[in-house]
Design a protein that fits this description.
Elements (H helix, E strand, L loop, with lengths): L2 H32 L2 H34 L2 E3 L4 H10 L3 E6 L10 H13 L3 E7 L4 H9 L7 H18 L2 H4 L2 E6 L5 E6 L2 E6 L11 E5 L3 H14 L5 E3 H5 L1 E7 L2 E8 L1 E4 L2 E5 L10 E4 L11 E7 L8 H12 L8 E6 L9 E2 L3
Parallel strand pairs: 2-3, 3-4, 14-16
Antiparallel strand pairs: 1-7, 2-5, 4-8, 5-6, 6-7, 9-10, 9-13, 11-12, 12-15, 13-14, 14-15
Helix pairs in contact: 1-2, 3-4, 6-10
Organism: Micromonospora cremea
InterPro entries: DUF5919
Protein name: DUF5919 domain-containing protein
């Protein structure tokens, strides 16, 4: 819902109430004119008082509303239970801007996802904007939290794994209201919004943002306008954001002898600037290359052609590290993955199967 809609609704309410009071006053004054004696005086005084009340309401109610919106309430830390309770009641919009969210950790996950489902059923649009676990800013945030022993990329990947499973389990009528995107930028503001209210905070060095004071603000206030603009800036930035679908899998076209064979969606990870895919869904029985757009953050970019190289311990990135990234992103693979590195294909270069790295 546009931000002006709530303000327009309150203005309409003021005019409706003021108009109703003026109508009552008009009836009283008309009755006073037609009557006589004590009743006439009583109705005249009451009617005049109601007229003054109506005018005062129309004039002062917007002022009181603006004063209420400007009031900022401070909380000592992020209260997960209170926010989840507000999620249950949200009926218009829920927005979360964070690196990763503590709400999806084990002790809060089921309750949080139940509240998100309730908000979606209430008609809310739910938008989550989390830090891209593969970006430089995620690693930098991990370094800032080194004393806290927090692995930020791993926390984000775990969040995204649960969000992907939750989205898949939703009914289609609810799924389209849930949107999850990743951003590649330095985290600056934490936002937890429910309808017209929000909790905001900043990212202190060496501390988790959940454990620092939170400001509860009205989204129509200057504070609310500031964080709204920041969220919109990131959300709409095509080069800085990636939606959950493109993060979760990449579309590759299998090729044989320079001819396209089939297009498939495959799991993938990016480690040290190199891309790896899980080929478990199809057989590598003959020499193949693949065509894909990587990184997936660049929609509309020309696809590249890659050979499929099997990771080896002598690679720049050890095979065990690649497997660990797949496990963090998709959960344990139980040895069933067929991981291949996408090696840029040179004209006339070798095709799959390959071993070793460049």
């Amino acid at each position: 819902m546009p931000r002006w809609a709530g303000r327009g609704g309150r203005q309409r309410r003021a005019f409706v109430v003021g108009g109703a009071l003026l109508g009552i006053a008009a009836v009283m004054l008309l009755a006073a004119w037609r009557s006589a004696g004590f009743l006439s005086d009583l109705l005249l005084n009451l009617g005049a008082s109601v007229v003054l009340a109506a005018i005062s309401y129309v004039i002062f109610d917007p002022l009181f509303e603006e004063a209420r919106k400007a009031r900022v309430q401070e909380h000592l830390s992020f209260d997960q239970q209170a926010f989840v309770a507000r999620l249950h009641r949200a009926g218009r919009r829920v927005r979360i801007l964070d690196t990763w969210t503590i709400l999806l950790e084990q002790r809060h996950r089921e309750e949080t996802l139940g509240a998100v489902r309730a908000a979606l059923a209430n008609g809310s649009q739910v938008q989550l904007l989390l830090l891209d676990p593969d970006c430089t800013a995620a690693q930098q945030r991990s370094e800032e939290l080194e004393r806290q022993r927090v692995n930020v990329p791993r926390q984000i990947r775990t969040n995204l794994r649960h969000l992907a499973a939750f989205s898949d389990a939703l009914e289609p009528r609810l799924r389209h209201r849930l949107q999850v995107r990743l951003y590649d930028a330095s985290p600056s503001i934490q936002l937890y919004q429910w309808d017209g209210r929000a909790l905001i905070s900043f990212f202190p060095i060496g501390k988790l943002s959940f454990n620092v004071p939170q400001l509860e603000v009205d989204m129509d206030s200057p504070w609310g306008g500031f964080v709204h603009a920041r969220f919109e800036e990131l959300w709409e930035h095509e080069q800085a954001t990636l939606d959950l679908e493109r993060y979760w899998s990449v579309t590759v076209t299998l090729r044989h002898d320079d001819s396209d064979v089939v297009e498939v969606q495959v799991p993938y990870v990016t480690v040290d600037g190199q891309h790896y895919v899980d080929c478990h869904a199809f057989r590598l029985a003959r020499p193949l290359t693949v065509r894909a757009v990587l990184p997936p953050r660049a929609p509309g970019a020309a696809p590249g052609v890659f050979a499929l190289a099997e990771p080896a311990d002598g690679d720049r990135t050890p095979a065990a590290t690649v497997v660990r990234h797949f496990d963090q992103k998709y959960g344990p693979g139980n040895g069933e993955r067929a991981i291949r590195r996408l090696a840029p294909q040179q004209p006339g270069g070798p095709r799959t199967p390959l071993r070793g790295g460049q």
